[in-house]
Amino acid sequence: MKDYKTIKTFDQLIEVEHGKIGTESRNSYEEKSQMFIISEMLKHARKEANITQEQLAEKTGTKKSYISRIENGKGNIQLSTLIRIFELGLNKRIGLTFL
Question: Domain named HTH cro/C1-type: which ranges (predicted)?
Answer without folding.
Answer: 42-85
